[in-house]
Amino acid sequence: MAFASIFVPQFMLQAVVRAEPALRGRALALVEGNPPLCRVVEVNEKAARAGIVPGMTKTDAAQLAGLEIRLRSRPQEKAAHAALLDVGWSVSPQIEDTAENAVVLDLAGLTQLFRSEEEAGACLAQRASACGLLSNVAIASNVETARIAARGFSGVTVIPAGQESQRLGPLPVGVLVPTTEMAETLRRWGIHTCAALAALPVLDLSERLGQEGVRLHALARGAGSRSLAMAEPGHSFEETMELDDAVEELDPLSFVLGRLLDQLCARLAARSLAAAALRVRFQLEPSGENAFDIRREMFRRKHPPGLYEREIALPLPVRDAKMLLKLLRLRLQANPPGAPVRKITLAAEPARPRPTQGSLFLPGFPEPEKLEITIARIAGVVGEGNVGSPSLADTHRPEEFGMQRFLALLEAAEKNRGQSGSQHPEKPRAGSQIPASFRAFRPPLPAKLELHAGRPTRVLFQGRRGEVRAASGPWRTSGDWWREDPWQQDEWDLEIEFPSSPERGLYRVYYDARRRGWFVRGIYD
Amino acid sequence: MSSKAAALRIRVESALAGRVATPFEYRDRRIAETVPAGVPSLDAMTGGLPRGSLTEIYGPPCSGRTSFLISTLASRTAASEVCALVDAGDAFDPYSAGAAGVRLQQLLWVRCRNADQALRSADLLIQGGGFGLIALDLSDVPPQVVRGVPLQVWFRFRRAVESTPTIFVLLGQESNAKTCASLVLRMQARATRWSQTPESAGESAGKIIVPHSPGCLLGGWTSHAEMIRAHRKLEDHQPVQQDAAFADAHGCGADFEARIVWKA
What's the ipTM? Predict the structure, then answer.
């Protein structure tokens, strides 16, 4: 049985670099604390070579030209930790959430998946890299050796069974994470490596350092044996970024959103999942007028920041970051946040991807991803509620219908096709008869009618006067008396002849008893 | 000389490799696949609606244009195709379309407020691809506005659908697409049919019918369609390209009846 440990060195830095890949390869220092007492908490190798050390004040660190300084971000660390767990779950269901920057996974039963342990280690490192984390991976026969080796060796390390003590020997005692007192004691004894610690007699060590000393001794020999404390698989896919300067324009915002979506999609891909819906939440910066209470200016009280929340439901689960970014851009163009954005949170609702195969007996369909973008673009032209599929309401109320989301799904068409035999039999039409169609005037056109013995004889609407050549009606309908907007109408079908036009028109007009007026509902065409 | 020409030909072909498959081959006129519109008499006359082409249907209000379009949408959605209707005047009536057999779940309805929105939406839909039929209904847009649409717009639409299986149908009051349309139909209303005739109502012929009785219903009307332009080859192997008089004289017209379907 083998265990693999994934360890992310300089985790706080990597969590920031993961969301801002441009920082990779540059001197970077992370600071924490309230200004002006911000202190450096972690530096990368390049910054360390330039003399920046943890504990320096931000002011001192800023004197180094070319040094990038970022604030430590707990939300980004949380997202990076979730990504690390996703990497583990992408390979094995048995994961231990060892620390914020480390996980251990059980590789038992994965011999069908990987030809060798080296290949398993390389795969884990590659998947972590795809999620934006540069990690050390170590594989050993027990949990503790794997965990210690991952902390001590960079890259991929495989320790064969029986060689634990030999391989861990050169590592500093610090990788065993002793307590401060214990570390000081060992330092005073001149014990600096695991090999030196392992060479000490265990009984004497027990007398002087107690059970903790014995535990460290076992770890140094690579004999620390324990079972995994299993972690429950999480289903939260959320990425957050706090911006140093609030962003108002869409282009720079899209740049940040693109990076977050890349990370979100990489995490989903690692778990073989896709996004069924995307939720975006912006924390907005109070605008100039609202920043202070004008009436009580002396208090200079800031209003709480506003929130902008939107949800994009997707027709099919997708994990294409470019497509999601396009949709998000179109949605933001149609409904801009209205204030500079301070903090961005993107969350994906995970779902299993649905691989579909085109049917041999069905015509081509629009690609769901492409169609969603097309619909979003059209919605930007005609408005959100003006594009979709019409849905009929179970009522006699005129013009009562809804607009629902257009889902051109292959399965739905196949289902329709299956039902067509029973519900919509395709019978040949007799002769050349087709059902007549109606065109609605929205809103109905106000009209003036002349009546003779209760029958319409002349009509005036849209500045045109016409003679009624034939009429059928009135067809009296009413309903919804229990609602605030009941309806009561007398409908007529009229054949109208206009002097200005050689053709006659077939119109439907109605008298609205509640509004006490005549209206033209539409025309037969 | 011939070897020089051959060498030159090879050089040109290699330079255009990947962009133009056969630069020196004559490109035959594509024979468009046609599908029935769901109106037997018109299908017999036109041979059906051509895929990858622009079909224009025009006529005055109440001439049966919309009934023909809805019938076509019903036919295409019944064949499990996905259709789109770009409605420039927001005049589509879902109830009469549902009664005519259109599967509304397979219809994308774009409700526009003007011709500009409609043209932009149609452009996006064509570029998106995958639709069996895209209808652009400009019937409620004033003819002078549609006349102002540059010809290159229709030409671009034609080119965009050319190599796709999409049927692009344009509805209007006048013919505007000109030579960009592969099939042009002109619609005209003929006679209105009421369930009670003047004779049955006991009145003399020619008088105004005002039945004013629940027994008298609007039954429908007869429309006449003329094929003004088509790429279909006739018996004499000449493409049809004619005016209305020619259509009447040569029998390139067909009647169909639009029948009112009353909701139960």
Answer: 0.83
